[in-house]
Prior knowledge:
Elements: H1 4-8, E1 32-37, E2 41-46, E3 59-63, H2 68-76, E4 82-83, H3 88-95, E5 101-106, E6 110-115, H4 125-133, H5 137-145, E7 149-151, H6 174-183, E8 190-197, H7 204-216, E9 220-227, H8 230-238, E10 245-250, H9 255-263, H10 278-288, H11 293-310, E11 313-325, E12 332-334, E13 340-342
Parallel strand pairs: 8-9, 8-10
Antiparallel strand pairs: 1-2, 2-3, 4-11, 5-11, 6-10, 6-11, 7-11, 12-13
Helix pairs in contact: 4-6, 9-10, 10-11
Amino acid sequence: MADLLDLLVDIPVVPERVLDDLPERAVGSGPYRLVEASDTRVVMDAFTAYWGGQPAFKRVVWQAEADEEERVQALLAGEADLIAAVSPAGRHLIESTAQRKIITRESHVCVIFMCNALTGVCTDRRVRQALNYALDVPLIIDTIREGAAQPLNGPLTPFHLGYDPHTPPYPYDPERARALLAGAGYGDGLPLLIDVPTVLPDEATELAQCMVEQYARVGIFAEVRVFADRPGYADLVRAKQMDDLCCFDSSPLSTYRVLREKFHSGVRGPWWQGYTNPEVDRLIDQARATVNDTQRQKLYRRAYRLLRDDAPWVFLYRPTLFWGASPQVPDWTIGRDGLIRLVAAPDRMK
């Protein structure tokens, strides 16, 4: 399998003797040992015999806080050294304080709406295309993200091997959307039921409201169902019991995983929602057997262009992500996977 290394980097490695203890027992090989863990708090102490050198801090405490305003205030008050999931509005507040800083990273996450291609109106390719043409994505980005995102031109980002920079995003073209809907038999209007969670992505309900307003302009009459239970929402989507559209954030860095698990009709993976194109299946299979990176990339890009045109998703954007930090915590980095890594030990450990 040509993409094996792409997958192995995301697979945790543990001693064979502890396999039966997982997941109840926390086992790792990093610079910190787990001391305490609950649903809202995790405490880790430095493991001084770590092979990679002295850990950066004597103790690290991770505290759950769902309310972004509370997270920001904790940072500004000196009660937190580092906070995640900062919104564009929170970013402005933190940047207005000289004693705190914002760290910015481009994301590999795709914020999208999956189309139910198994049953209902989205089984028609013309409808799925119309759902993309009917949206002014740059305006949505300005409204919801204050410009802190980049429009998608397909199901991957520049961090993925199969991403094609030459594929254009769907332009905002309401006239073309109306024509496609009329050709599909919905000239008098299209009813649409949209499912959204309240978190992951956190802006899902706002996105849905923007989409409802824009869709109405081309004769798409959308209704939104909101799900507060995020794990239950994921289970519903995994069971292929979604309505016409469902909001999701596609996050695997592996091109192989994204294409195979979400679009290959022979695999019918957990996030596959009925999309079928034999040529896409063939290209994914051929890429899997192609060791040469350049040749494999070409195959993935051919599949990518077909996926863009078939529109199994409503392609929105990849968000720019923000973290807030105290200058007391200089020695940490964020990888392109979004994971926080505490690195070399500072002169003064907390």
